[in-house]
Amino acid sequence: MGRSVTDHPTASQPVPLASLGWSDFFEDQREPHEADFAPMRIASIHRSRLTALSEAGSVELTLGVRAIAGDFTVGDWILVAPQTQTLHRRLGRRTVMERRTEGSQTLQAAAANIDTLFIVTSCNADFNPARLERYLALANQGGTTPVLLLTKADTTDDLENYQSQASQLQRGLEVVTVNPRLSDAANRLAPWCGTGRTVALVGSSGVGKSTLVNTLAGPGQALAQQTGGIREHDAKGRHTTTFRSLHRIAAGGWVIDTPGMRTLHLGGAAEGIETLFAEIVELAPSCRYRDCTHAYEPGCAVSVAVAEGKIEPERLIRWRKLSEENRNNTPTSVGPRGRPRVHR
Q1: Which residue spans within 195-338 are E strands per DSSP?
Q2: What is the DSSP string of 69-82?
Q3: First CA to last CA distance, the chain
Q4: Element (H or E) spanning 175, and its range?
Q5: How do residues 329-338 score in pLDDT, each as one tens digit?
Q6: Residue 62, class by beta-carbon neighbours within 10 Å (0-12 exposed, 13-18 middle, 19+ buried)?
C-alpha cells in the first residue's frame, strides 16, 4: 500500500514523466495489460519502505511480502497499481552502478538509470589514481558516462599536475575543476544536468559531494544535504550522507547522492576494465603469445610500449591488479553438462 507524502525535498510539485527521465526504453517494457499501471521512480529507500516520484507527486510505498528491498535501488523505474498504490514490478535498467561488497560474490546496485557519473576527488591526499580507476571501471561497466570533478583547487599550487594526471586515467575522459560552494559549479556542470537527465556523485567522504548536491539543487530545496569537513592531517572525510536519495536539480535534471565508499571491490567488470585500459588492451593482440601477461614474456608489445615511455609502468601494474581482482570476484558460469566455465 502507499500514501502521498509532502516532505520529500524534490517531490512537492507534480512532475511530467519525461522530466523525471522516462523514455521509450521504459515505455517499451510495459505489457499491454500494464497500460493502467502508474510509472514511478524510486527516490529513496528506507528498510522496507521506499519513496517514489510520479506525475502526481511523491508517494510512499511499502514493499509487499514477497518483495525484497535489495531488488530495488534509487533511480529505478517501477509500475504501481493506481487504485491500491501497490508496487507491481520493477522495469529493466538502462544503466546501473553496481559494486561488490566485502565478503560477497553478489553485485549490489547502488543507483540506476544514470546518464552521467560524477566522480569527485580533491586536489590533496585524497587524489588516488588507483581508486579513481575503480570508479571509472564501475561507470564503464554500468553503461553511464564518467566525468571526473576536481575540488579544493584553491588548496594546491600544482593544479595543472592534478588535471594532467586526471585526464590520463582514461581516453577521452572529461575533467572539470569546480568549487562545490560556488553557484558557478552548477553552470560548469549544466551540460550534463538538463531536463530529464540524471547524474550521480561518487567519491570519498569529505571531497564536497553533499555540498555539490546542495549547489546543483539550488536554494529553493526544502531539505539540504548535511555537509562536513575533512581532517587536515590526512584529507580523510567524515560520512555526511548515510543513504542514497534522488534530488531535483535547478537546471531541470536529477542528482543522486551516495555515501562515501571506504572500499570498492570490482567483480563482473571485465568490459569496464577494458575500456579503462584501452591502450593496453589494443596492444595485446600484437604480443607474440596469445595469453601474454605483459610481465616477462618475450615479444610482448605492451612491455615494449612501457620501455618506450608510451605506457606508465604503474599503469600496467594497476591494470594487472584490477584484472586479477575482477577474475577472482567474478563467479564462474555453468557450461554444457554442468561443467564450470572459467572467466578469462
Answers
A1: 198-203, 245-248, 254-257, 333-334
A2: GGG--TT-EEEEET
A3: 46
A4: strand 174-177
A5: 887 654 444 4
A6: middle
Helix, strand, or coil (residue 340):
strand
CA gap 229, 43 in Å, rounded: 26
What's the pLDDT band for 237 if we cut at 50, 70, 90?
very low
- Residue 31 β-bridge partners: none
Confidence of residue 61 (pLDDT cuts 50, 70, 90): confident
As given in the structure block, the three cell numbers for residue 214 are 546542495
Distance CA 326, CA 344 (A): 10
Burial class for 115, CB neighbours closer than 10 Å (0-12, 13-18, 19+): buried
CA 318 to CA 320: how far, in whole Å? 5
Q: At what angle do helices 129-142 and 313-329 cross, to 10 degrees?
A: 50
Q: Which residue has the cell 572525510?
A: 237
**CA nearest to 148, candidates 98, 101, 168, 255:** 168
Query: The pTM is what?
Result: 0.85
Three-state SS at 210: helix
DSSP for 58-105 reads: EEEEE--TT--GGG--TT-EEEEETTTTEEEEEPPPSSEEEEEPTT-S
Compute CA distances 10 → 43, 52, 61, 246, whole Å: 9, 11, 16, 8
pLDDT tens-digit series, residues 171-199: 999 999 999 999 899 999 999 999 999 99
Q: With beta carbons less than 8 A apart as the criterion, state whether 71 and 63 touch.
A: no
Rounded distance, CA 261 to CA 59, Å?
Answer: 29
Rounded distance between C-alpha atoms, residue 205 and residue 262, angstroms: 8
